[in-house]
Structure formats: structure tokens, C-alpha cells
Amino acid sequence: MNTPIKRNMIKLTLVGLLFPILALSCGLLTPAAVSNVPVQPVQVVVATPVPPAKTISVIPSSEDAALIDLYNRVNPSVVNITVFQAQNGVMVPQGQGSGFVYDASGHVVTNAHVVHGSDQFEVTFSDGTSRNAKVVGDDLNSDLAVLQVENMPSAIEPLTLGDMESLAVGQSVVAIGNPFGLDGTLTRGIISALGRNIPALTIFSIPQSIQTDAAINPGNSGGPLLNLNGEVVGVNAQIETGGTTNSNLGIGFAIPVSILRLVIPDLIQNGKHDWAWLGVVGGNLSPALVKGMDLTVDKGAYIDQVVSNGPAAKAGLRGATRQTVVDERQVDVGGDVITAVDGHPVNTFDDLLIYTALQTKPGQTVTLTVLRDGKTQEIKVTLELRPETLNNTPSPS
User: Fold this and answer.
1) Model pLDDT for residues 292-303, shown as the tens digit of each residue
2) Is 213 a catalytic residue?
3) What string of H, E and C letters represents the secondary structure of the chain?
4) Of these residues, 107, 113, 192, 336, which one is catalytic?
């Protein structure tokens, strides 16, 4: 919904000496008052001709020209999405977000939180053309959704997806969308960090997310984050507000293109994406854990909890078994340490999460290299489909 724009009020003060002249011209002075006004000689002043203003041509820098060209190429493919919900027998607009054209068949990518639970959808293009749309599929685990636009305008070109491997911290990026309903807004920033885990619309997390300082505000959700070639590297989804405002504080997050490439084709074809699940909760190794468990490694994914009846539990993986105090800190010890999966090194818990999310499917069997009680062993785990809910289990993998 649009935020009203506050404008400064401009006050005009009249000089008191000019008031009789203005009042006379407005007929505010009485005839008697006019007769008492002393007559002054009229002095004619010939004005000096004012030369015409010079036209100054502003030549954009090469960087400015690149951004202008990017915007002109990309903006027609970025859309404003208005969502409606049924109330008392009529459809009432409930909010808006952004999206972008994914292919020539009229598929539009946006966030699941933009469209989930709504009844009707209207997509508006940069030239003001509007079309009705329907949801093809949404995935709450990645906060992604796909709309199908009816009678797609023929002149609209789909955007190109970039590559995750080409991204680097410090790289310039731009966001295009409709913050506060202000359509076609471009903001610029850099990639502030890579590999963030951000909350999904489920108990799970979205790995490899992109942190940026490009201004992202309500209404930007679902719009593209682009590199300077105009390629989509992420879908703008969340902002850090500090809990005191709904506006941007310089930290925004985008769902990475690696997740887009994985999920969007499945949403178009099947209406859903199936995520594999290992069924563990844990974190990185800390010096206290290494000391408390007398480990021979200082990198790996530590298993603090194994979800009951999950794939890891069925395969015999072990979580923490007791608590101890190390350097005056209470530490849960005794859990397995995973150092590799299918031969790929696991240095952090995120490595395990990313591999499970991006490289596996439900029903697939993976081999975990596990350090337990000072000995290394290999344990095979058959992954399962992620459950929709779990009781009292924080952010499992």
C-alpha cells in the first residue's frame, strides 16, 4: 500500500509597505482612503534586457550510462503485483509486491509471501498495461512463487538469470521494484555478504542468501536483484528493521539465484518443489566443543540434536548426550561431528545444509563421514521429504 508523501508547507510573507498597492488593486481600499494617498511622480525605468538562459548539456558518465541502459532494458520486465482477497462477496485489494517475467510463456516469479493465501492477482507492467494472473505454484520453504499471466504482452522480454559462482562481496547490484507502491523504482548498492541463512515461511532456513545494502522496502518483495549486466542474481525478500520500523536500515536479503534455478522449473512443471531432509539440528565447532570433546579436528558440522524418527535417527546418527563446563561455559557434548558428505568436505554446518538442499532429493542415499568417540566412520543415510511441521525442533536440516 502506498505511503502518503509529506510535503513542506510554503509560507509567503508580504512586505507591509506593499500592502496598500496590493489592496488597491483588489478593491480593498475605500475611495476616501484613496483620496488621502499622496500622489508621487511617476518615474519610468527602462529595464536592461536579460540575456536568454544558457542550455547546459549534462553528459552522463560511463557508469551512469550503464545504469540508464540497464534500467531501460530491464524495467519493462519488472511488474507490480496487486493481490485481492474475498470479503463479503467482493474482491478487495490487500497489498502489493513486485515480480519479474521469467519466460516467454508469461510466467512471473515473485515471493510466496506476496501471493500465498490470496484469491486473485493483477499484474501491471511498466507501460501501465494490466493483466489478470493465477498462481501456478508456490514454495514456502524458499519463499518463491510463480504466476501465469493471461494474454502476456508480446513485447515483454524475460529476464536472464545470472550465476551464483560469479558473485562476490563488494560487487555492485541494483534492485528494481515497487517500494510503497512507487512503481519502477531502481536502487543501487553492493553485495554486503554471501551465504546468509534467512528464515523461510516454514521451520527451515533458506541457504546461500545474498545480503545487500541496496535499499529494499515494503513493496520490493519479489522483485529482482540484478548485477550490472542486468542478470537476475536474487529475488528481494526480506529486510532487517531492528524491530522499530518497516523501512530499510541498510540491510536487505535476496533469495539466491541458485535456489531460483532449483525451485522455479519445478513450480512451473509440478506446482511444487520437493526438498530433501536429513533430520538434524546443530552448528559449527567451537573451541569449547573441541576442548570439551577432545576432538582431533576444529572444523565440521556438530550434531546437537537428532530429530526423532527422522532419516538421521533411523541411520543411527547421535546428538549431544550430556553437558559439561569448559572454561566456565556450559557445553552440550557427545554428538557426532560430520566432516564430509559424499566425499565433499564439510567445514561448517552451513556446508551440510547447502549440500542437502541443493545437491540431493528425497529418497536419495548419502554417505556421511562422521567422527565419533575419536574414531572416523562412514554412515549411509536415506533422505526423506521435508515435513511441513515439527514439534519443538528449531531450524533442522
Assistant:
1) 999 999 999 999
2) no
3) CCCCCCCCCCCCCCCHHHHHHHHHHCCCCCHHHHHCCCCCCCCCCCCCCCCCCCCCCCCCCHHHHHHHHHHHHHHHHEEEEEEEEEECCEEEEEEEEEEEECCCCCEEEECHHHHCCCCEEEEECCCCCEEEEEEEEEECCCCEEEEEECCCCCCCCCCCECCHHHCCCCCEEEEEECHHHCCCEEEEEEEEEEEEEEECCCCCEEEEEEEECCCCCCCCCCCEEECCCCCEEEEEEEECCCCCCCCCCCCEEEEEHHHHHHHHHHHHHHCCCCCEECCEEEEECCHHHHHHCCCCCCCCEEEEEECCCCHHHHHCCCCCCEEEEECCEEEEECCCEEEEECCEECCCHHHHHHHHHHHCCCCCEEEEEEEECCEEEEEEEECEECCCCCCCCCCCC
4) 113
